[in-house]
Automatic annotation (TrEMBL):
Coiled-coil region list: none
Lineage: Bacteria, Bacillati, Bacillota, Bacilli, Lactobacillales
GO molecular function per UniProt: phosphatase activity
A Pfam family assignment: His_Phos_1
UniProt xrefs under PANTHER family: BROAD-SPECIFICITY PHOSPHATASE YOR283W-RELATED, HISTIDINE PHOSPHATASE FAMILY PROTEIN
InterPro entries for the chain: His_Pase_superF_clade-1, His_PPase_superfam, PGM_Phosphatase
Name of the molecule in the record: Phosphoglycerate mutase
Residues the entry annotates as binding substrate: R8, H9, S10, K11, T12, L13, F14, N15, R60
Organism per entry: Ligilactobacillus pobuzihii
Length: 195
């Protein structure tokens, strides 16, 4: 059984300032760097090694991964965060209310040059399936983003199951899945700060 550890990047300046951060980027904070290093120490402590590692092409994801491990990794655009169009870099107070039927922002950002929730979900699912289909990929670490990870999670779990099993989805949260026959099964959430 193959394993995927899908991780949200560490805390950034825009996270701290409550700015909308999708296609735009900002650097990790000092706390974000320390938190990523703590994840690396946790993986060493439990002797968890990865055959392959991947990160979104965005700086915050790459920097998170580089603070966790020194192993080589590949950058993939398919793991990027949701594009929020003209809302990029603006206050999070401008975010719309969730579409109650889809439990996300739905199509709201499309009219402003961004992506829909389902476009993000499809991109993430295609990218992660392609990664896990590779024959020598048995245990993979992939660093992505909050919105993108959440939409991927909604592909494989109902919203009610997410509410039950993923109670705290903060920076550096890790979602463990097993993969077989082109499908992902959610196993658990790992929050290193809580261990």
């Amino acid at each position: 059984m193959k394993e995927l550890y899908l991780m949200r990047h560490s805390k950034t300046l825009f996270n701290q300032l409550h700015r909308i951060q999708g296609a735009s980027d900002s650097p990790l904070t000092a706390q974000g760097i320390e938190d990523a290093q703590e994840v690396g120490r946790y993986f060493k402590q439990i002797n968890l090694n990865f055959d392959h590692a991947y990160a979104s092409t965005q700086e915050r994801a790459c920097d998170t991964l580089e603070n966790i491990t020194k192993q080589p990794y590949k950058r993939l655009k398919g793991l990027k965060e949701w594009n929020f169009g003209v809302f990029e870099g603006q206050s999070e107070q401008l975010n719309p209310k969730d579409d109650s039927s889809r439990h996300s922002y739905g199509d709201f950002f499309v009219q402003y040059g961004g992506e829909s929730d389902l476009q993000v979900q499809e991109r993430m699912n295609q990218t992660l399936t392609a990664i896990m289909e590779r024959p020598d990929h048995n245990r993979v670490l992939a660093v992505s983003h909050g919105g993108a990870c959440f939409m991927f999670l909604q592909k494989w779990l109902s919203f009610e199951e997410i509410q039950r099993h993923v109670t705290d989805f903060h920076n550096c949260c890790i979602l463990k899945f097993v993969y077989s026959k082109k499908g992902f099964e959610f196993i658990k959430t790992i929050n290193v700060k809580e261990l």
